[in-house]
Amino acid sequence: MQYITDFHIHSKYSRSTSKAITLEGLDNMAEIKGIDIMATGDFTHPAWFKEIENKLEKQDNGLLKLKDEYKKKWSSEGEICKSRLRHGNTQFILSTEISCIYKKNDICRRIHIVVICSSIDRVKKVNQYLEKKGFNIKSDGRPILGMDIKELAKIYLEYDDKAIIIPAHIWTPWFALFGSKSGYDSFEEAFEELSDQIPAIETGLSSDPEMNWRVSQLNNKMILSNSDAHSLDKLGREANVFDFENKEISYDLLHESIFENKNLAYTIEFYPEEGKYHIDGHSNCSFSCDPIETKKHKGLCPKCGKKITVGVTSRIGDLADQDPEKQRKKRPPFKSLVPLKEILAEINNTKSTSSVKITKEYESLTNNLGSEFHILLDEDLKNIEEQNFMLSIAINKMRRGDIVVKPGYDGVFGEVKIFSEQEREKYQPKQKKLF
To answer: The pTM is what?
Structure first.
C-alpha cells in the first residue's frame, strides 16, 4: 500500500507564513491534496506544541491524528474549503526545522535541519532542555540556535532513540549542509562520528534526485523531498511516496525504512529549474548564468562587479564525483509535477493562483475527480477532459515532461510554462475532445 508523505512544513508561528496554517487546516488540506502523512512542523515552538498536545492524539501505530472534536469545530467554523471538507484519515508525524548558526573551522555555518521525533513526551523533554540551556525557542516556529548541528543531533538522538535527523534543502546557498555560502564539503566534516546516524537528506526545491545521484557520499542516504510549505496551498509541492506492500504504515516502519534506505517507491518533485537557487546569478542586476559563465566572469557579476550567488547546479558540480546513470537502477524514480492551481492559472492566462475563479475551478475538480495528486498522477485523461478540455492537454504534456522552464537564481523563482503561445492558439478555439 502506498502512502504520500510530507515531512517538512511550517506552522502559523513561523516567520512569513500564513495564519491559516492550523492543525485543522493541515488536516483538511492534506486530504484535498492527497497527502496521507503530514508533518506537524514547528514542534519546538511552545504555543504550537501546546496545540499539538491538545488537538492531536496518538494512534496505535505511533502516528497522530486530529481529535474528532476539532474536526467538528473546524466544520462549523469553515475557515477554508468549507464546501469540500472530507474529514478523512490524515495522520500526523512530529517534525520541526531548526536553524543552527555557529562557527566551525573558522567559518560561520548557517545550517537548517529537519528533526522527526517518535512521541510528544520526547519532544517535550528536548524543548524543556533547550529552554533550560537558555535557547530562545519562543521567537519563531523555526528557531535559531547558536549550536553545532552535530551537538543538536546528539541531543535529539539521546532523548529519542527513534529520532530522524535530515539536513534540510541540502544545497541551498545560504542555509544548508552543502550550501555554497556557509556549508561543508562532506558529512564527516559536519557530523563527525554521528555521520552514519544521519540516514537521509532533503533535496530542496532547486535540485531533484538525479542531480544528487552525482555525489557518491549520498549513495547510502535516502533522498527525500518535502514541501517546506509556508501556506496551505504549498503543501505537497514536493513529497515522498512509500510502498509497504501489504503492511499498514507506522512510525516504526517509517523509521526503519529511512534508516535502511528501503520502501521508498518514488518522490514527487518541483521542477528544480523553478527553484529560486537553481543556477548562478545576481538578482539585483537581473543577471543569471550557468557554471561555465560564472568561472568565465571569475565569480563576479559583469554588470556591477559584485559577487554572484553560486546556485545549486554549480555547487553540486563542485562535489560531483560519479556518473548519475550508474545510480539510476539502484535508486527510486521521481516524478516532476506542476501544482494544479499553477496549471489552472496558466490556462486562464493569469499569474494569480488564489483568485476566486482559480479557487472555484480547483474546488470543482477536487470535488468531482478526487485529490490533487490523484488528478495530476493517475486520473484518466478522458475524465479530466470532461471537466476541463485545456487541463487534460496540460496534464498530458506535464506527465510527458513536455514543458518549458526559465531557471531561478539568487532568490528569484524560475518560471514553468506548459503551453507556448502557438499551442494556446491551437487548442483554445477548438475545444474538441482528444481523449
So the answer is: 0.93
